[in-house]
Amino acid sequence: MDTPVSDIESPTGTFEHVRGRLFSLAYRMLGSRAEAEDVVQESYVRWHQADQAAIRNPEAWLVTTATRLAIDRLRALKTQREVYKGPWLPEPMISDVPPPDHAVSLADDLSIAFLVLLERLSPEERAAFLLHDVFDRDYDEIAGTLGKNEAAVRQVVHRARARVRRDRARFEVTEAARVRLLRTFVAAVEARDEQTLLGLFAPDAVWTSDGGGRVLAAGRPLVGPAEIVKLLLWLRKQALEQEATLHFVTVNGEAGLCVRADGHVRSVWSVETDGERIHAVYAVVNPEKLPA
Asked: For residues 33 and 31, what is the distance between their CA atoms, to the nearest angstrom?
């Protein structure tokens, strides 16, 4: 059982109790591990500078502080992302540990596809939506965080939720089904089996690559199986020349793939699928967004 924040006496202990939640919120707001860690660190500094005796609810205070910092940082980042070279994708969080075999809905609010969708919201819409629909915060608490009245917050959340539901593809697929499809996909890539690959992609499938202008990547999303498979066959040829290999990893809580060469991760692929066909691939190749 979690220890109540009120029972943790030291300021550092109080902060560490909610650190994970602050990082989870900041990462979903910013799509960057480094930026999220900066928000958490700044929240820590402000917490230690505050008059803690006057703070009745430390967790609410810390969540409010981190949210406001993330909103300010996201406004600055949106300006940078408008001049980003090629498509921008969130920094993936990868692990070699496989995800549990359950419905993907458990990880849907962390997936790359979900974070890409959140980029369409304004910073305040994104914060209000995440706080209410993902982190289960009450409207009155969100109102205090954003400096709005409760009615206004309800409208912001409603508007953001409507946009997300309108644009979000919902596939109820287990991790076992996702892994089976990815195994078929990897085998087809390795064999350069063009016909199998063409059949694995939905007619309106989209491949989005983020190179950030630092490495070679498609400057626009590729749409349709023909374009995507042409790219994959070229990538397979390049992989053979560079002795690169394709591996299964967990990407933001879901089964995904990464390309490794010379002991380094060269790209990370997050796949959106219904278990039968691939509907989208998000390929991060910008070395600044990849783990060492």
From this structure: 7
Do 195 and 231 fall within a single domain?
yes
99 lies in a domain? Answer: no
- In angstroms, rounded to a whole number, what is the distance separating the alpha carbons of residues 192 and 72? 47
263 shares its domain with 212:
yes
Q: What angle do CA 287, 194, 182 make, to 5 degrees?
A: 55
Q: By residue range, what is the domain housing residue 12?
A: 5-86+118-167
Number of domains in the chain: 2
Give the single-character DSSP code of 194: H
CB count in 10 Å sphere of residue 287: 15
What amino acid is encoded at 292 in this protein? A
pTM, two decimals, is 0.88
Q: pLDDT for 132-145, tens place per residue?
A: 999 999 999 999 99
Is 153 within the bounds of a domain?
yes
Q: Which two tokens stand for residue 184?
A: 């078929």
Quick: pLDDT tens for 150-194: 999 999 999 999 999 888 877 788 889 999 999 999 999 999 999
Strands (E) across the chain are located at: 94-95, 201-210, 222-223, 245-251, 254-261, 264-273, 278-284
SS3 content of the chain, % helix, strand, coil (to 5): 55, 15, 30
Structural contact between residues 246 and 186, judged by C-beta atoms closer than 8 angstroms: yes
**Strand ordering across the sheet containing 245-251:** 94-95, 245-251, 254-261, 264-273, 278-284, 201-210, 222-223
Give the torsion sign (CA, 128, 133, 137, 139). positive
Residue 97 lies in a domain: no
Same domain, 211 and 275: yes
Residue 107, helix vs strand vs coil: helix
Angle of CA points 259, 263, 269, to nearest 5°:
15
